[in-house]
Amino acid sequence: MRSSSRAVVAGLAALALVTLAGCGDDNPSGSDGSNSAGSKLDVVASFYPLEFIARSVGGDAVNVTTLTAPGVEPHDLELTPKQVGTIAAAKLVVFEKGLQPAVDEAIDQNAKSAGFDVAPAAKLEATGADFEEHAEGEEGKAGEEAHADELDPHFWLDPVRYAAVVQAVTDKLVAVDAANAAGYQERAATLVGEVNKLDTEFKTGLADCKLKTFVTSHEAFAYLAKRYGLTMVGIAGFTPDAEPTPARIKEVQDIVRKQKVTTIFSEELVSPKVAESIARDVKVKTAVLSPIEGLSDANSQETYLTLMRENLQELRKANSCA
């Protein structure tokens, strides 16, 4: 994450608190943390997969604000003074600690009691993906081993982990706003059912594939690959717009040729130029595989569920699945 984000947040936090101190509470809650009659619970979601859960489960009982606007790459998020103020005023802030350090810091300074970290519910693992970019030749064996221990944040691309987070967010909503518990639980059951159906579709759709390896712009799909018996090869590591080293590009090209990979996948929110260049060099196709970190103008009408199903179809085509 950019160090400038962390530097900016400290100043913004003070500004936001001064601003809020002069404002009345426009949406008061009951002493038990639930909403007063006729009001909605103010919920902040740090990025799209969590926004989708908050809106789907919250329904008309919540007012959801997302910190990562459509078209913005979540890893690069920098907060405005208004967003820091929104965090400070919210009754619940749903985020994933470690994914967006600017958000982590703003919550730590302004909303410790309202912050809800979904990472424990997601049961993050070290998938072996390289989540640090480095200059060619900089990494030795010790450095590689250190990066291999880093927890992969991309839980939402595994429907099973995503369903667990849906339930955790639901439980938190019920705890904060008990008056609307029945509605939260009913909508959550519907969403979990849809996500479980998605898991079944992936299991069936990827059960019999001629090719097990797929190549993506960055290493976001390790959980998905592990869940459904595939192997992910990322051109870049954790940061999608990082420039891969020449050595890494050659390594990917060699994998594509040796394993007869048919497609290089790019994504919506970063430039596809590197993926397209590799595809040209090894004479294979390109396609989009969405990491679903955020929406863009092109897919603003899509949802988590529809994008995951589009990903499934793209993987089936690229890997010649029966």
Task: Tell me briefly what this model is.
The chain has helices at 3-21, 48-58, 81-89, 101-110, 119-122, 141-148, 159-176, 181-205, 222-227, 246-259, 273-282, 304-318, and strands spanning 41-45, 62-66, 92-95, 115-117, 213-218, 231-236, 263-266, 285-288.
Q: How would you portray this structure in words?
A:
Strand 1, helix 2 and strand 2 (62-66) form a beta-alpha-beta unit. The strands form two sheets. Strands 2-1-3-4 form a four-stranded parallel beta sheet, with helices on both faces. Strands 6-5-7-8 form a four-stranded parallel beta sheet, sandwiched between helices. It is built from twelve helices and eight strands. The chain has two domains: 3-23 and 39-196, Rossmann fold (3-Layer(aba) Sandwich), CATH 3.40.50; 200-318, 3-Layer(aba) Sandwich (Rossmann fold). The chain is an alpha/beta fold and 322 residues long. Helix 1 (3-21) packs parallel to helix 4 (101-110), helix 2 (48-58) crosses helix 8 and helix 10 crosses helix 11.
